[in-house]
């Protein structure tokens, strides 16, 4: 009796341990979703170059409408179709969609990274959603001469399961003109700790969307006005154009592994509301650099902090890829807006069309009155000390 109950306890423990490990394996999985790169062969093999007329199957995905698996090298109307990664991707026809359900942690914020390419349509746009949240992502602007870009979008998990849907909103005369999608990954985001000596949250941009180590194009962050649900914790993308999140493996980054590259002039604005004390003096410092992507000079940014605005030109200093800038302001309220945009509309010197721009990193805002009080205190101690010496 005793033995068997011990054994059953052991069994129960092992089962709990097994499920605990299993659950963490599912929940802790940042990176590609199941068959997120569309490289898993369907049970009857990948379709040949001929457009499949029957119904197709894509492992791990639910399909609706005209969905097609495309392979690299495949041609359409004399043009080779773009496959962002590996040798296969998916194309969505008019109003077609793909979806997948996966396990998430209720209440957490997740960021979805995916690669998208335009084909022949003029006004391509995608609806990315995890109902009830959704966002329309405009694929009209070509940010990159390669014809595709990675994008990121964030959602808050309202249940333990998320149904991720990609839908082509296009209604083209030619139904084969829909967008191509590839390399879909998710990442659970962490709210970075509020630093003691810096009012800016995630000012070093180290926390952000999933980036593939082997993808060299950065990740575009489209407009996102929600300061709680964002792929870049703390920050909002206010403008109607995207900005580019870059990594140190493929770009020059002033500090750490990540930074922001501002694109499209005034049409690409990042901002944050920082906590301040009214009528107190503050200093904002940040790094301004180039991304090492052959961006055509000159480069400059407009930096805003409260009612102060400053136009700062990037002036490369010897061998450094960045310079440190500062801006002083007096807070007028308990929350002060800081913001940045690129003054020029820059493109790369090698292809003359890929968008690029100045890099911003390591943004700090602090109460600058504190330092003066600190010095005054030290000075007082010094004079008391001198007085003691003289009198002694
Ligand atoms: C990057 O690696 C992922 C995972 O190994 C793969 O699915 C994807 O196709 C690769 N992307 C590129 C652009 O090579
Ligand atoms: C995008 O899809 C979601 C649900 O998947 C839907 O609620 C929303 O209305 C769609 N948005 C547009 C612009 O079609
Ligand atoms: C700049 O780099 C070159 C070559 O790496 C080196 O010789 C030179 O001393 C550097 N200059 C400064 C100011 O660091
Ligand atoms: C801001 O104030 C600091 C110290 O008070 C000063 O060194 C710096 O030059 C000021 N910055 C600007 C842009 O005026």
CATH level 1 name of the largest domain = Mainly Beta
**CATH-scheme architecture of the largest domain:** Sandwich
Radius of gyration: 26 Å
DSSP summary: helix tally: 2
Give your account of this protein's structure.
- It is built from two helices and 26 strands.
- It has two domains: 21-187, Sandwich (Jelly Rolls); 189-392, Galactose-binding domain-like (Jelly Rolls).
- Strand 4 and strand 5 form a beta hairpin.
- The chain has helices at residues 2-27, 369-391; strands at 31-32, 62-64, 67-71, 75-76, 79-80, 88-92, 97-103, 109-117, 125-130, 133-138, 148-156, 161-168, 180-188, 219-221, 236-237, 243-247, 258-261, 270-275, 281-289, 300-305, 308-313, 322-330, 335-342, 346-347, 355-356, 359-367.
- It starts with a helix and ends with a helix.
- The chain is globular and about 70 Å long.
- The strands form six sheets. Strands 1, 3, 6, 8, 11 and 13 form a six-stranded antiparallel β-sheet that branches. A six-stranded antiparallel β-sheet has the order 14-16-17-26-19-22. A five-stranded antiparallel β-sheet has the order 2-7-12-9-10, with no helix packed on it.
- Mean pLDDT is 87; it is low at 19-27 and 372-381.
- It has 392 residues and is mainly beta.
- The protein binds 2-acetamido-2-deoxy-beta-D-glucopyranose (4 copies).
Q: Which structural traits does this protein have?
A:
mainly beta, 2 helices, 392 residues, Jelly Rolls, 26 strands, globular, six-stranded antiparallel sheet, 2 domains, single chain, binds 2-acetamido-2-deoxy-beta-D-glucopyranose
């Amino acid at each position: 009796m005793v033995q068997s109950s011990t054994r059953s306890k052991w069994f129960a423990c092992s089962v709990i341990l097994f499920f605990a490990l299993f659950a963490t394996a599912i929940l802790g999985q940042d990176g590609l979703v199941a068959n997120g790169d569309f490289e898993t062969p369907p049970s009857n093999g990948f379709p040949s170059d001929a457009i499949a007329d029957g119904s197709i199957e894509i492992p791990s995905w639910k399909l609706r409408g005209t969905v097609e698996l495309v392979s690299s090298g495949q041609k359409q109307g004399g043009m080779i179709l773009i496959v962002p990664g590996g040798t296969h991707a998916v194309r969505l026809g008019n109003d077609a969609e793909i979806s997948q359900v996966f396990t998430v942690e209720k209440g957490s914020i997740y960021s979805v990274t995916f690669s998208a390419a335009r084909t022949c349509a003029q006004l391509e746009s995608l609806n990315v959603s995890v109902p009830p949240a959704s966002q329309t992502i405009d694929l009209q602007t070509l940010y990159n001469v390669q014809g595709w870009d990675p994008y990121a979008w964030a959602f808050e998990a309202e249940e333990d399961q998320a149904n991720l849907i990609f839908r082509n909103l296009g209604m083209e005369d030619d139904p084969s003109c829909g967008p191509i999608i590839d390399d879909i990954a998710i990442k659970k985001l962490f709210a970075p700790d509020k630093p003691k000596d810096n009012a800016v949250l995630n000012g070093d941009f180290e926390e952000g969307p999933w980036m593939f180590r082997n993808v060299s194009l950065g990740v575009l962050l489209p407009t996102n006005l929600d300061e709680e649900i964002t792929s870049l914790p703390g920050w909002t993308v206010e403008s109607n154009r995207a900005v580019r999140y870059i990594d140190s493996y493929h770009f020059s980054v002033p500090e750490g592994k990540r930074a922001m590259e501002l694109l499209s002039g005034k049409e690409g604005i990042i901002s944050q509301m920082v906590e301040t004390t009214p009528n107190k003096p503050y200093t904002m410092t940040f790094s301004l650099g180039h991304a090492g992507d052959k961006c055509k000079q000159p480069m400059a940014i407009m930096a805003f902090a409260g009612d102060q605005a400053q136009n700062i030109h990037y002036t490369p200093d010897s061998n450094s890829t960045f310079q440190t800038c500062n801006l002083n302001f007096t807070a007028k309220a308990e929350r002060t807006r800081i913001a940045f945009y690129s003054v020029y509309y820059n493109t790369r010197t090698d292809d003359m069309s890929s968008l690029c721009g100045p890099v911003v990193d390591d943004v700090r805002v602090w109460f600058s009155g504190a330092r003066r009080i600190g010095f005054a205190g030290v000075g007082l101690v010094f004079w008391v000390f001198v007085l003691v010496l003289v009198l002694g």
